[in-house]
Amino acid sequence: MAGRTILISGGGIAGPAVAYWLQRYGFDCTIVERSAAPRAGGHAVDLRGASPWVVERMGLLDAVRARSLHERGLRMVDARGTKKVEMPAEAFGGRGVVADIEILRGDLAGILADATGDDVEYRYDQRVVGLEQDGDGVHARFSSGDEQRFDLVIGADGSHSTVRRLSFGPESRFSHPLGAYNAHFSISPELAAASGLDRDSSDDWFTIHNAPGRRMVGTRPDRDGGVKAMFIFGAEGVDAGVLRDPVEQRRVLRERFAGMGWKTPALLAAMDMADDFYFDSYAQVKMPSWVNGRVALLGDAGYSPSPASGQGTNLAIVGAYVLAGELALTQGDPAGLTEYEGAMRDYVERNQKLMPGGVDIMIPRSAAAIRMGHVLNRVMLSKPLRPLVARAFAAEDPFTPREYPDQLADAASSN
């Protein structure tokens, strides 16, 4: 086999997903992950588009459903907590804002990692710091000081990818900000109860509250009875340097969301006690190519659609399946990387297209725009329009990946 040893940077969702298929086809995979251990919890992600089809082919769909959050749908409330709109998950065939399958990012990553078994080597608390390739392979240097040669390298290390920076150029060339920031964190069941944020089964909704000035705060159910908090706000007036300063991030959140109603004060008060606080900009990664010789990018590293699209997990899982399949078909030749890009490019570009209005739909500027959003959502849910909207959601993702035959595994292992 031309490219039998493969280095994968990133142990989140895309990395273990592609490793699962590659080891099945007879490749030797090593995953490096900068965190010291598998990261549990995290925010909710969903399976939509073609990803449930891929996960089912992996034999993991039942395991994913068993760990799912069972969110009842999307609920919009005003400053007093009065319900304005309620959109059940099943309203549009599981393809609405809340999908049929919602699961914590860490839970999905754990299921995928467990499925790779003992045939994939995981190296935690390490990152790639250097890549040098020639016609026969790629020489990798790691933060531990170790060095190793691989036939191919896959960057599955997120929208701030180190592999992309080392092999393709600085992030500023490929990252396209969408004009908003987002933050999220977990609130334990104990703290939620003490803060008046605890819930019961009747409150298993993704609940959001918008306020004028491009601000949205939301809560989602956690699997253990806790709460996931989310903040989204417009980027105007905020220096990009905030991305490097966690203290400033919290200060900006307190400033932007001061005086906002509903549960906002309690959520802000709980923020300092969260051990998984996350803050980032809404941005899309767009590149002329995801392949450079023997190095390829996968998922958010090469084509992050941003959280505004809801398609990041879908693209990571489908991309992993296609990338591994094309490499198996070419017996590990780097030409398989180019075939992967050709097979995925149109699907990626369609999934990077945001709804009309983009992020502004999520964070309206005025009270009038917020009220109009409530009206439009109620109209979509009306009996005459609901079937039409459901058909529109169903038609937006016609892509079915190629079925790479299981016989590839036998063919690969014999070379």
Automatic annotation (TrEMBL):
Matches recorded under Pfam families: FAD_binding_3
InterPro entries tied to this protein: FAD-bd, FAD/NAD-bd_sf, FAD_aromatic-hydroxylase
Domain FAD-binding, chain residue ranges per copy: 6-348
Keywords: Monooxygenase, Oxidoreductase
Recorded superkingdom: Bacteria
Alphabetical list of SUPFAM superfamilies matching this protein: FAD/NAD(P)-binding domain
Single Gene Ontology MF annotation: monooxygenase activity
Identification of the protein by name: FAD-binding monooxygenase
